Amino acid sequence: TDMARLEALVAQLLASPRVARVLIRPHPVKLIKEDLSGLCTPDGRVQETAGTLLIDNVRLCDLAICGNSTVTIEVLRGGLPVFYDAALDACGHDLNGHLRRNLVPPLPELLDEAALQAVEAFYDDPDWLGRMRYFDASYRGDEAEMFRRLAVGIRETLQDSGLAPLLLTPAAAAPQAQGEAAAELPRRAETDRDPEAKPRAGRRLSG
Fold first, then answer.
1. Which of 83, 90, 151, 203 is disulfide-compatible with 170, CB 3.0–4.6 A?
2. What span, in angstroms and rounded, lies between the C-alpha atoms of 64 and 62?
3. Got the DSSP string for the chain?
4. Are strands 82-84 and 46-48 parallel, antiparallel or unpaired?
5. Rounded distance, CA 202 to CA 120, Å?
6. 86-144 pLDDT per residue, tens
């Protein structure tokens, strides 16, 4: 993490009356843990969220700003719009190709009304779903069909290996898989938003 850039970004966000709270989530895989306590504020407006579940962070926010991290895909799956900031780390510009493939927009200089309208239009683009599925083929897919294809794949694999007596049927495979998938419900499950709804930004932001 580029700490100077992170500090500048937090200061910029705090200066905006649109931003109610800033949650900082450090990358979970780090050999050297960074001390982010100096960025946190006594009033709780800036908090570090290491150790909390990602989905809990997603539920609390209206907008996310990510650097070069595959967590971007998980955040988008939760229905949270993402801006990309290349300066947050030293991994290289657009390392994962999210910007190049138009999956996420770059962070604008100012998070004003125009920026929020632009990000909403970006994720409302009918072609965005196809771009998301390039990175996550299961996004907003038919679960029943996915489980059927999974069971067929397992059946074919077992047949090829000579373990035919252990074959699974789609009916047997689906319930357990569905139960596991329930743990990945998108953000704001307490609202009426559709699961894996397209990312949308709020007007008073936590990010």
1. 151
2. 7
3. --HHHHHHHHHHHHT-TTEEEEEE---S--SS----GGG--TTSSEEE-TTS-HHHHHHH-S-EEE-S-THHHHHHHTT--EEE-GGGSSS-TTTTSTTTTTSSPBPPS--SHHHHHHHHHHHH-TTHHHHHHHH-TTTT--HHHHHHHHHHHHHHHHHHHT-GGG---HHHHHHHHHHHHGGG--S-TTSSPPTTPPP---SSEE-
4. unpaired
5. 9
6. 999 888 899 999 999 999 999 998 888 899 999 999 999 999 999 999 999 888 887 78
Joined together, the tokens standing for residue 39 give 């960025």
What are 11's two structure tokens? 């200061």
Q: Token digits for 7? A: 């500090």
